[in-house]
Design goal:
The complex is a heterotrimer of chains A (263), B (253) and C (354). Chain A has 263 residues and is of the alpha/beta class. Chain A has one domain: 3-Layer(aba) Sandwich (Rossmann fold). Chain A is built from 11 helices and 10 strands. Chain B is flat. Chain B folds into 2 domains: 149 residues, no CATH class; 69 residues, no CATH class. Chain B is mainly α. Chain C has 354 residues and is mainly alpha-helical. Chain C has one domain: Arp2/3 complex 21 kDa subunit ARPC3. Chain C has a two-stranded antiparallel sheet. The longest helix of chain C is centred in the middle third of the chain and has 33 residues. The chains are: A alpha/beta (263), B mainly alpha (253), C mainly alpha (354).
């Protein structure tokens, strides 16, 4: 699959990883979910996308790789507009890790699952093997390559799910609720992995401490628009703002009192 | 169809039979069973030889006899059917232990029992020496339509997931004091089946999204392929070829 | 009812295999048309569902239980093409991994349990939903009848194959009454569960029930004081309109029915005394009744409840007549439909390799 429509390499490096402007979308049944979202994520940034249920987070995510088509407005990934003619390249650049790893890991073995993306893009042979091994090493799962996914623990499955998109060398990694259903140890392991990656991250989550731990910057999506965009710590401290968007910190958690690991 | 987990049938072990390419084994087993089915039932000794052949394969594959026999339970309903035949088939009657039974019925029972048992035993040998994944690759190599292979592959991948969901629903039902005793509980079970269908279908849609997100456009990339050389084919062919020789003898003798 | 090796002779097994291959090939094309690139994951998950549901045991009375065959359920929920694919895959994997059903009898099993149940159930279901008012209740009722008819129909198909190629001469009339009789009873269970399950899905996600797509009234627009149908707007790319694919489906079904019938009459004329012999052997009922191995697991698998042959014979007669009526109406309906839309463009062939 040739990336025929890619813009020149130098222009690309200057462009931010993700550029959403004026994005509005209504489902065919008439229900409007997005009302003009503007969001720019720079190269290498890690941003948390916060918001109450029904704010349109999932709808937004499905626009990033063109599964949903914008009603109005545009989405650009590293300068390349999300449009029908670019879909193959866009889907290579945007790696979405879905919430349930069982949905994401659909091949009979871990190795084949990680190979699925690059193989769909036309990679074969030793080059493919090398790519698979590298992605599995990045998440520390290289020993499990030959296993069927349903023999892994939930945390391991989520790590493999991350590897499946890393294998495609994405420009931006989009994670949907990455910490859900993880025990504290798996949660920390995943955080270590995400911090070690040299890739732009957009993390959709309800888990505010996790957002604080991993993402220096956070945005709040509420009622179909970006309602706030600031340093994560400052956002979480603003109790008024948090309450008005139905976001609540866990009992006893003080965002001002934690040391943020260096980004 | 007994207890769910398909992979429990597989017995891991390094053996020449395990090492054979899956498509060779599939073809060999199929031809073997076909030959068995074509053997005249009067040649009783032939079926004995077939059984000996399978026993030899089991020995080479290091599959314990007990394991094999346990799996044969699958055919119990047909044993019952076969046992009934001597009593319902019309024809010349004879006396066995003081009970009047029909001769063609006895032959029919013997025919079904012998052939079905050998068929089941051959399948069990195949299943216990070949991994699920390998069988799929073998089917793919045998030119089963790719879409069918994909469906089978998804079914195997999600069989456990769906069965687990079903089990969790059963536990939830029982925790709330439900016990399936008779016809009156059908409505509850059917509601669970309906919910299970919706969950399965919606998961199918989500899986499709996940596939599309990774560049799926309708065809699966071929990541693994199995190949077999002439020696392996020859090795796998031993079983059906010997069986064919026995069968031909059975027809001529 | 999985048929093992050695039950049906080789020529008929091969013929049934060829028929099954044809049916699966046609279904592959049909499913592609209905589900496009979503076929593999959706059909795979539905196959997993059928596999799971077949393991779900429904208690019938103290001690005994039955399980769903699922043909009717699959046909109604996901449409005939996908249903045939799902059941074929389930049967294939059961044959290989569970030795459940012989490998050489795979064609027989797919034909009897996959194709026949699905075709019969879907035709009956569409027919009834077409005749009855478009409500949820009538959809559920139609599901009941469709499943009820599909199980004995599959038993009848098995009897037919056994008649042509059975390895042991059991009087065919007896096999027929016993098989169909027992399966009418099994069919009632299947029907109740199928109807309740379809009802449960209809209550939550009516859009997922393939057999009754568009049960919701179409939106109306008021233009110049008159109500006009609004253009349908759905979220997914609209699958081929149901009646169009259904028409092709019926034609295929009818053609294969005729082929089968032709095949059968050929054999029947070669063996003319098959049916006559039945009459001579009525004395056997009592013997079997004494022998009393009648209930037990066997009941699920056919020639069990022979003591009830007369009762089941009666039931079988009723079913047979209704099946004839249903098929007759079906032919009439298809013909009428064809006349109603004469100038329709030939269906675009998809280039996908099946």
């Amino acid at each position: 699959m040739d990336p025929v429509t890619v813009s020149p390499k130098d222009a690309e490096t200057a462009a931010p990883s993700l550029e959403v402007s004026g994005l509005a979308y209504a489902y065919p049944d008439g229900h409007q979910a997005l009302f003009g979202v503007n969001l720019t994520v720079g190269r290498g940034e890690r941003v948390a996308l916060l918001g109450p249920n029904g704010a349109g987070k999932t709808t937004l995510v499905l626009h990033l790789n063109g599964i949903l088509e914008a009603g109005s407005g545009t989405v650009r990934v590293a300068g390349l507009p999300v449009a029908k003619r670019n879909l193959a390249e866009i889907r290579r650049r945007v790696g979405i890790v879905f919430q349930d790893p069982d949905d994401q890991l659909f091949m009979p073995t871990v190795r084949e699952d990680v190979a699925f993306g690059p193989a769909s893009a036309g990679l074969r042979g030793p080059e493919l093997e090398e790519r698979v091994l590298r992605a599995l090493k990045q998440v520390g799962m290289e020993e499990y390559a030959a296993r069927p996914p349903h023999h892994l623990s939930f945390g391991q499955r989520r790590r493999v799910a991350v590897a499946t998109v890393l294998a495609m060398d994405p420009e931006i990694l989009v994670l949907d609720e990455p910490s859900s259903n993880l025990d504290p140890a798996s949660r920390r392991e995943l955080a270590d992995i995400l911090r070690s990656l040299d890739v732009t991250v957009l993390m959709v989550t309800h888990d505010l401490p996790y957002a604080l731990e991993l993402c220096p910057r956070a945005v709040i999506l509420s009622e179909g628009v970006i309602a706030a965009d600031d340093r994560t710590q400052d956002l979480l401290r603003d109790q008024e703002l948090m309450r008005s968007h139905r976001l609540e910190l866990p009992f006893g958690f003080d965002p001002g009192a934690v040391d943020i690991p260096a980004p | 169809m007994g207890a769910g987990h398909a992979h429990k049938l597989y017995r891991h072990g390094p053996s020449p039979v395990h090492g054979l390419p899956p498509h060779c084994k599939l073809v060999a087993v199929f031809c073997f069973v076909l030959v068995v089915v074509c053997t005249p039932r009067e040649a009783m000794w032939a079926f004995g030889l077939y059984a000996a052949l399978l026993a030899a394969v089991a020995a080479v594959a290091r599959i314990p006899v007990g394991f094999l026999l346990k799996r044969l339970v699958v055919e119990v309903p047909f044993v019952a059917f076969a046992l009934l035949m001597p009593f319902v088939v019309p024809g010349e009657q004879t006396n066995v232990l003081g009970v009047s039974v029909s001769v063609p019925g006895l032959w029919g029972a013997w025919n079904v029992l012998a052939k079905a048992t050998l068929g089941v035993a051959a399948s069990v040998l195949l299943a216990s020496s070949t991994e699920l994944r390998a069988v799929l690759l073998g089917l793919q190599r045998l030119k089963l339509p790719p879409l069918l292979v994909q469906i089978a592959s998804f079914m195997i991948r999600y069989g456990d997931v769906v069965t687990d969901e079903m089990r969790r629903m059963a536990i939830a039902r029982r925790s709330r004091g439900f016990e399936a005793r008779g016809v009156r509980q059908w409505r509850v079970l059917a509601a669970s089946a309906g919910a299970l269908f919706i969950r399965s279908y919606e998961r199918g849609e989500r899986v499709h999204l996940a596939m599309v997100s990774r560049g799926y456009t309708g065809t699966m990339p071929v990541i693994d392929e199995v190949t077999a050389d002439r020696t392996q084919w020859a090795y796998a062919a031993t079983l059906p070829v010997l069986a064919l020789a026995i069968c031909l003898l059975g027809w001529t003798l | 009812m999985h048929v093992p090796d050695g039950f049906i002779d080789a020529p008929v097994s091969v013929a049934a295999g060829a028929f099954a291959v044809g049916a699966v090939a046609v279904s592959l094309r049909g499913a592609r048309r209905e589900l496009d690139e979503r076929t593999a994951p959706l059909a795979g998950l539905v196959a997993a569902f059928i596999f799971a549901v077949q393991m779900l045991n429904f208690p019938v009375a103290a001690g005994t239980s039955g399980h769903l065959m699922g043909g009717a359920l699959a046909a109604i929920l996901v449409g005939p093409w996908t249903a045939v694919l799902c059941l074929s895959v389930v049967l294939l994997l059961q044959g290989i991994f569970f030795a459940d059903g012989g490998l050489t009898a795979l064609g027989v099993n797919i034909t009897v349990m996959g194709v026949v149940t699905v075709v019969v159930a879907y035709v009956v279901f569409r027919l009834l939903t077409g005749l009855l008012p478009r409500t949820r209740r009538s959809a559920t009722a139609s599901a009941f009848v469709a499943a009820l008819v599909s199980v004995p129909a599959s038993a009848a198909a098995f009897t037919l194959l056994y008649w042509i190629g059975g390895t042991t001469e059991i009087p065919i009339g007896k096999v027929f009454t016993a098989m169909v009789g027992v399966h009418v009873l099994i069919g009632i269970g299947e029907a109740v569960i199928t109807a309740l399950t379809v009802g449960a899905v209809l209550a939550v996600r009516p859009d997922l029930v393939h057999g009754v797509r568009g049960i919701a009234a179409p939106l109306k627009l008021r233009i110049d004081g008159e109500l006009v149908d609004a253009p349908a707007a759905t979220r997914d790319p609209e699958p081929a309109p149901a009646h169009r694919s259904a028409r092709g489906f019926w034609i295929t079904g009818l053609v294969s029915a005729f082929l089968l019938a032709g095949f059968v009459s050929f054999y029947a004329s070669a063996d003319p005394d098959g049916l006559e012999r039945v009459a001579a052997d009525q004395g056997i009922d009592e013997k079997v009744a004494e022998h009393g191995a009648a209930d037990s697991p066997l009941a699920d698998y056919g020639v069990g409840d022979i003591a009830n042959a007369r009762l089941s014979g009666g039931l079988a007669g009723v079913i047979g007549v209704s099946a004839t009526v249903v098929v007759g109406t079906g032919v009439f309906w298809v013909v009428r439909r064809r006349e109603e839309e004469p100038g329709e463009a030939p269906r675009d062939r998809d280039h996908e390799n099946a």
